[in-house]
C-alpha cells in the first residue's frame, strides 16, 4: 500500500477539509491553523455535530444487525433502508470501516457504508450527511473520493478486493435524508480509472502542502465558512473589507463611495465581527491566549421577560379581558408580555400593569449572563461556576 507510514506530521490534511485544500482553494490553511493554534479555541462541537454523530451510531448499529429502527419517518431509518435496498444477493456490506488515508497513513478515515460484489471486483461506498442546511453534491466530491481510494488500497492489500481494471464501474452515493426537498440520494457513477486519476491529483496537492510548496491564501465564502482560524486570518479580513481605505472621523465625513461599499458588504462585516466575538469569548472561556487580557464577570442585564406557561396565561387574560378572542393574542406565535400590553391598550383602551403578570407567576426573566471585561493589573476572577452559565 503506497502510503506514508509511521510519520508524525505537524499538520493533518483531513478528507473532511479537502474541498478547501484539494480543489485549488486555500492551501495555506493547514499550516496557518497549526502556526496559530494557541489563538484558536478548542472545538467543543455543537448540537448539530452531536446530533449527526448520534445518527451515524444508530445507523451503524442497525446495519450491523441490531435492527433497532422501526419508524419509516425517522431519517436514519430512511438512510439504512436505502443502503439495504442497494444490496444485491451475495454482495457484502461493510459498516463504519476505518482505513489509513492513502496519501498519509498516519490518519484514518471512516467510510459509513461500503458494498463489495461477491467476487471482490467492485467497491461502491455511501456517505451519510445528516445536516439540513447544506446541499452536498457527489460528482467531484473530494472527501468521498479520498475515502474510496483509501479503502480500496486497504482492502486490496489484505486480499479482500481484487486489483480492479480501470474500466470497472464505481458508484459513490451521498445520502441526505433530511434534505429540504425530501430524501436526496446524489450519485457519482464513474470508473476506477477516473477515480484513480482524480485522487492522484489530490495526493500530489497533499504532498506539496506537506512540503510547504506553493502555499496560497484564497478566501471565499465557501473556503472560509467552516475555517476555525478565520477570526485571526489577515487574508480573510482583507477580503471582507476589500476596497475600503482607513476609516477616520464621523460617518458623514467618510467618502460617499466608501459608505456605499460598507453598506453593500455590511453582512460580511457583521458576520466577521461575530466570528471575532465568538473567538475571543471561547478563548477566554478555555483559558487561551485572550484570558491574559479579559475576564468573565457577572452580568447585570437580565434576559427579556417571557411567559412561564402560555395556556395558563391565555386563561387568565381571557378572564380579565372577555371581549378579546384567543386570536388577538397570536400573530405567528403567542405575543410576548410587552406585545400583549400594547395590544390590550390599543383594543380596549385599558392599561395593563405588567407587574401583575409577575405577581400571578405568569412571567419570568432569565438570569443575567456573564460578560467580558478587560483585566486591570492584579485582577483575576476566572470562575468555573460563572462560566457554566455560558453553556
The assigned structural class equals: alpha+beta
Tally of individual domains: 3
CATH-defined topology of the largest domain: Lambda Exonuclease, Chain A
Look at the structure and give the CATH class of the largest domain.
Alpha Beta
Total E-strand runs:
9
Instruction: List the quaternary state of the chains.
Output: single chain
Shape: globular
Rg from C-alpha positions? 28 Å
- Average pLDDT number: 83
The spatial strand order of the largest sheet comes to: 1-2-3-4-5
What's the story with the biggest beta sheet? 5 strands, mixed
Our count of helices gives 14
Give a verbal description of the structure:
The protein is α+β, with helices and mostly antiparallel strands and 391 residues long. The chain has 3 domains: 15-210, Alpha-Beta Complex (Lambda Exonuclease, Chain A), CATH 3.90.320; 251-300 and 369-390, no CATH class; 305-365. It has 14 helices and 9 strands. The chain has helices at 18-21, 29-35, 47-66, 75-86, 142-157, 192-210, 221-224, 234-240, 256-264, 266-285, 310-320, 337-348, 354-359, 384-387; strands at 92-101, 104-116, 123-128, 169-176, 184-191, 294-297, 305-307, 363-365, 371-374. The strands form 3 sheets. It has a 5-stranded mixed sheet with strand order 1-2-3-4-5. Helix 3 crosses helix 4 (75-86) and helix 5 (142-157) crosses helix 6. It is globular and about 85 Å long. It starts with 17 loop residues before the first helix and ends with a helix.
